Amino acid sequence: MADKINDVIITQARLGSVAAIIQVLNEELATLGVRIRAVFSDGVLQLLCEAPQIEQLEQSNLVEQVQQTLEEISPRNIWKVKINSRIVQEHQLLWFEEIVREPENQLLWSQQITLAKPNIFKQIVNYFETNQPKSTQIPLSQSVYLNRVQKPNQFQLGIMGVFFLSLLMLTLGIVINQWLNLSMLYRLPTSENPVSQPPSPTINNFSEDIEAKSKAAFSQAVRLAEEAVADGKNAQSQEEWMAIADKWQRAAQLMASVSPSYSRYEVAVNRVELYQKYSDIAINQAQTR
Fold this sequence. Notes:
Layout: H1 7-14, H2 18-28, E1 35-41, E2 44-51, H3 59-73, E3 80-87, H4 95-101, H5 103-106, E4 109-114, H6 120-130, H7 140-149, H8 154-192, H9 203-232, H10 238-256, H11 265-287
């Protein structure tokens, strides 16, 4: 995988960037002619696999490849994934809303999977690969190759002996901290999506609640878009462009969560497409660096 995909994009994907995860999966599934869309909602990474032909979306093979790729990446705080598939529809922007409302009419099939948690040693490797300084960061394929064919010298063995226990405790602390914060992180998308909120006691309060949440989502999306525009004026590195792509992606998701009853719903629909295009442009910029 790392032979085809830049290590910076893999690092962003490990950190949980939806834009980077989309890029990695699109690269991996390019030979099948499958295109991926994704959104993180209610603690589940929702994937949409699209292709021109039904044969390209054979369920068992596609699910196996997606699960293998995601488990190799091990994206932070993402354990549950729902894989949806359909024949490609170029002009349908609010795809997640459509498949939630009418799954039997929109999808060929869907399947939810749970990603296997990496063992403690892989978590140690992933942690240091993700947090290496840029000047010394080694692509995943080279790292695996070096681990297999090179024997550590005595100095390395001495360093490992001195720091292994501290490293193990540090990693355990990180893992425990992530587990304790999972529930909080999983609730974040819910706060942006008025559909997933429990109804208020009265119809009037419910309508006001939808209006308020749509307004908040719209405003937050605009703020993210403004930040992405400002960041794009000075961005140079791959990391900076991937961060910009992620902001555009989150802004598009927020616009997509706006209720049809909101006064600026039509504007939100138009900006979903616009922000998604800008996210794709930022990803392309990252690839050229």
